[in-house]
Amino acid sequence: MGSVDHLDRCISNYRMKNRTKKWTVRVILHMIDFAVSSAWIAYRHKMEAAGALKKDIFDYFHFRLNVATTLIYGVKQSQQRIATISSSDESIEDSQPPAKRRIPACMPHDSARKKDVRHMPEMVGDRIHRSKCRMPKCNALTTVRCSNCKVFLCFNGSRNCFKQFHEK
């Protein structure tokens, strides 16, 4: 019973405070608090057993803060992990790097979009590398991109978003 009281004491210091009438949300938040405080106790015991200095062990607040920032931003390759202890049974290494996502190009300013004559359509890749047309109210997938703006636009017989985009 002593460890449950210890967990309740840890949770009471930095409880997630959300005013809600839904009992399910309160239970989920309590379980998250319970898991984080239990993980902190296990982390602290492992670090003490490894002989780490007291100043190198995170206190509960900084541990929660580190868990939250890791959940929000993810773990960077250069960032040192919280658990510095590794044994032959446990492996903390990442199995594979996250998949890269293509970030759409920013829309050019209206004056640059309409003024220059350097806007030429270019074919990019094949059907696998298609992207959504950036013209408002057009949801077509296209492989044509403006060489100057780097914006994907439709350019075919039925619609010419490329021309409309650079004239309007």
Helix and strand sequence: HHHHEEEEH
Shape: elongated
- C-alpha Rg, in Å? 27 Å
Number of domains: 2
What class would the helix/strand composition place it in?
A: mainly alpha
The number of helical segments is 5
Largest sheet: 2 strands, antiparallel
Strand order of the largest sheet: 1-4
Flag low-confidence runs: 77-94
Averaged pLDDT = 77
Description:
The chain has 168 residues and is mainly alpha-helical. The protein has 2 domains: 1-84, no CATH class; 116-167, no CATH class. Helix content is 39%, strand content 6%. The chain is built from 5 helices and 4 strands. It has a two-stranded antiparallel ribbon with strand order 1-4. It has a two-stranded antiparallel ribbon with strand order 2-3. Strand 2 and strand 3 form a beta hairpin. The protein is elongated, with a radius of gyration of 27 Å. The model is unreliable at 77-94 (pLDDT under 50).
Summarize, please.
The chain has helices at 2-13, 23-49, 60-73, 110-115, 161-167; strands spanning 121-123, 131-132, 141-142, 144-146. With 168 residues, it is mainly α. The model is unreliable at 77-94 (pLDDT under 50).
